[in-house]
């Protein structure tokens, strides 16, 4: 089976004499597989009242000279996406399957393959626990590996893998199911054997992940700031328009009040005022010519018109006939006209 090691193998002595090192491990699998129970059993905790995991649990284990942090990640469909965000910082993984629930093997196959081929997981050791062996119909290593197409996946991505059958409820601590304990020891040994290399890889991956997350955070903040600024500008515009509308309305109301019931004094236009000073090119034909004619062409005839205030009716002299007519009709000044009606029949 290449990288995939199956079956019982005692490896407890290999971790003896190792200096304390810090390692990170994740436990994943679908909901109800027994993940939390497995970790509690390995850690020697009570197995009573294990509740479904909401989000994730963190366990700090001290095992020989190792300081182990275990992330127990929830298996619910809604939170499986968080698994991959832990791949960068972990050194190895425990995948737990409820071996008695065969109808979910296809789902497990997909999840397992996605995990193995993740760039941050390739080459990292995997412990596959086929849990709930106490239940009828539980799959053994051979059948499970076949259904999961495990050999292909682990060989392709060069991930060391060990499969163990177990029952997490069997006991806790020293009394926990031996295959489970042995499988866990195998995982620690794999990590220990390549610790320096793995630590460098994890450090680099975590640094890169943090840089990417910081960049994404900055971009997100920039987007939020730009959105806020756009909203503030829109609000300011709206306020300005409201203020202009209010001012216009106030002016309209004010003007209406101002002009209501008031008779304003007449104010001539500036150019008409100028006409009085004889500086405007505009000439009122009536005032400049008619009055002169009416005054008999006398000099200073315009004086009377130009001294008139605009809007005043000029005081016209009495009409006298033109001199030519006066010569022909010398008595015209005293002319009196008598009209008489002659019947039409008298002409004819
Ligand atoms: N019969 C049996 N039940 C188990 C075993 N391991 C866990 N359980 C039970 O399965 C249920 C789910 O366990 P839990 O650890 O919460 O699963 P998780 O959702 O994967 O964390 C609990 O009721 C456990 O008591 C086992 O080996 N055999
Ligand atoms: Mg759980």
UniProtKB/TrEMBL annotation:
InterPro entries assigned: Ciliary_GTPase (IPR051995), P-loop_NTPase (IPR027417), Small_GTP-bd (IPR005225), Small_GTPase_ARF/SAR (IPR006689)
Molecular function in Gene Ontology: GTP binding; GTPase activity; metal ion binding
Any one Pfam family match given in the protein's UniProt record, by short name: Arf
Cellular-component GO terms for this entry: ciliary membrane; non-motile cilium
Residue ranges, compositional bias (Basic and acidic residues): 220-230
Entry binding sites for Mg(2+): 36, 53
Binding site for GTP: 29-36, 75, 131-134
Region (Disordered): 220-244, 267-331
GO BP annotation list: non-motile cilium assembly; receptor localization to non-motile cilium
UniProt protein name: ADP-ribosylation factor-like protein 13B
Source domain of life: Eukaryota
Keyword Lyase: no
Polar residues: compositionally biased ranges: 277-294, 322-331
UniProt KW keywords: GTP-binding, Magnesium, Metal-binding, Nucleotide-binding
